[in-house]
Structures are given as C-alpha cells and as structure tokens.
Amino acid sequence: MNKLKFPNDYRCIGIFERNTQNIITKNINKQLKEMYSNWHNTIINKADKRNLTFDEHNGIHYLTCFDSYINSNVKLMIIGKEANDKDYKLENYIEDFENDYQHDINYSYEYAISHPKETYAKDRKNTCYLKTRKLVSNFDNNLKSCSEDLEKAILSVLVNNLNKTSINGKLTPYNDNEFLYQEFKYNQLTHSVYVHELNILKPTHIIFLSGKGYDKHIIRDFGKDFYEELRDKIQSVNTNNKPISTTLKLNNDSIEKLLGIENYFTNINDELKIIYAIHPSAHMTVLTRNKYEESLKEFIKDRN
C-alpha cells in the first residue's frame, strides 16, 4: 500500500479499488454515479444558488456499493439523521463530485475506522452512532482481523441520512433547501434521490436510527404513503422500554405501491424488512441499551 505523503491526504490509499472488484459492484456504482450526476443537473445546477447557504452546510452524503455489501445475505442500509462530513462543504461536493466521488478521498472516514492504529486515524471519535454501525457491520473491535478485513466489514453496510446535507452536522429543518429533495427522473422512475438509491442498491433490510421528530423528513424523502405505512412503528419507540419497533415487511407489490419501484426483488417471495429505532446517542439505561443492541443483532441475524 502506498505511504501517505501528508497525514490527511487520503487520495492514494487504495480502499475504493480494493473493495470494488466485483462486476456487479462496478455496474451498480456506474448507475449511482449517473443517477447522482442527473440529480445535480436537474436539481442543484438549475436552482437559484442564492437560496443555498454554502458556508454552513456539510458535503452531500452519497452512497457507494462495495463487494462486501453485494456478497452479504443481508444487504443492510442504516438511515440516521444528519450528514456530518467535516472534510468538505456543500459547494465543494457539487464542484468536486467528478474528481472525488468513487475515489479514495471520499472514503477517508471508513479508512480511518478500519485502520485505527494509523496515527492520523486516532482523531476519529468512537461515538455511539459509530459503535452501532460497527455492531451491525460485524466489525471486530478486538482487531483480531487484518485491516483489509475490517475495511470489508465497515463497507458492507450502506450508511444514509434523512438529511443529505446538514447545517454543520446539527439538527436541520425538513424544509431547509427543500428543492434538493424534489423528484427527478432516472431510469424510468421519477422520485426523490432516496428512492432512486433504493432502486439501484436494493437493500433487503433497513434500520432507521432516527428517533422521534423526523416525520416530515421521512415524508419529504420517501413520500407520504411510505410514511403512513411506517408511522405506527415510529410512534411505538421510546427510550424507556421499547427502543426498537417491530418489523415492517414489504413485498414487491407493496414496494411498488408505496415507492413506485417495480420488481424490487427477483424472487417474488422476498420481502424488504424495516425497523425504526431511537438514535444510538439517546440516553438509555444499561438494560435498555442491551435490549437495543440485541434487537439489532436479531434483526440481521442471517448475515454471513
């Protein structure tokens, strides 16, 4: 592996190439890049940029497909609250998309997580959200595996957020730069960027790690019909004795009805499984935290 010339220069670390060898992975990433470019052209570049507060907003949160995601029986997406990329601001992401997306620099955080003994990785805090991300990724905290195995683990889970860009990683109103979440057409589907991501990446399991207060964000991102189906799950969670909801299961017909995606699964008997949870950083008793973690592990128990 190439030695880094500067501590914060992650452009030549090889993490993207190492973990995207599968032809299926390459094809999906090609679709993602086309879709995001379409999003930029039809939504961002045509918007009145005077409405954008570039200096306050973090970079846009894009998704990427990796081999370990494709190879997993459980294709998992977790959805948090706010995108919190400290390396770039929104303006940089729009301008530098072609140069940085699907290149090593865009995965410096994942590299730091999976190479914790590197000196330049030690400023990454092991937050409650990151601990939960490691938990559902089957990440070996004891470092018994080599770093490349840790890369595969952390990259096997798709990490998304209800806000694709946020005000310095803080609580961001649902109507902040709302035009970013408007529908656009790609591959015969007209919907928000979130539904296009689902249509391309086809997760089999989704965990909302969003907690209360994000109902309008979900309506904005996935549509009112989807929210109505999920609403009882959202309302059922609390920090006292039910940190995670029961599972919502959607078959092909339900997915087409709620999201407009046709033939989501090749096997018509498969179902998209969704749970809603309080955010990992919420204050929980030890018993509740244990229940929380055990419920997450149970939800993805069929991972290989």
Q: Oligomer, anyone?
A: single chain
Strands of the largest sheet, in order across it? 2-1-5-7-6
Distance between the termini: 28 Å
Described by the principal axes of the CA atoms, the overall outline is globular
Furnish the topology, listing elements before pairings.
Blueprint lengths: L14 H4 L4 H22 L22 H4 L5 E7 L7 H11 L7 H7 L13 H9 L10 H9 L2 E6 L20 E3 L2 E3 L1 H9 L3 E5 L5 H8 L1 H13 L11 E3 L1 H8 L12 E6 L8 H14 L5
Parallel strand pairs: 1-2, 1-5, 5-7
Antiparallel strand pairs: 3-4, 6-7
Polypeptide structure, described:
The chain is α/β, with parallel strands linked by helices. It is 39% helix and 11% strand. It contains twelve helices and seven strands. The strands form two sheets. Strands 2-1-5-7-6 form a five-stranded mixed sheet. Helix 2 (23-44) packs antiparallel against helix 8, helix 5 crosses helix 7 (147-155) and helix 9 packs antiparallel against helix 10. The longest helix is centred in the N-terminal third of the chain and has 22 residues, at 23-44. The protein is globular. The chain starts with 14 loop residues before the first helix and ends in a 5-residue tail after the last helix.
Please give a quick description of this structure:
With 304 residues, the chain is an alpha/beta fold. The chain has helices spanning 15-18, 23-44, 67-70, 90-100, 108-114, 128-136, 147-155, 193-201, 215-222, 224-236, 252-259, 286-299, and strands at residues 76-82, 158-163, 184-186, 189-191, 205-209, 248-250, 272-277. It has a five-stranded mixed beta sheet. It has a two-stranded antiparallel ribbon with strand order 3-4.
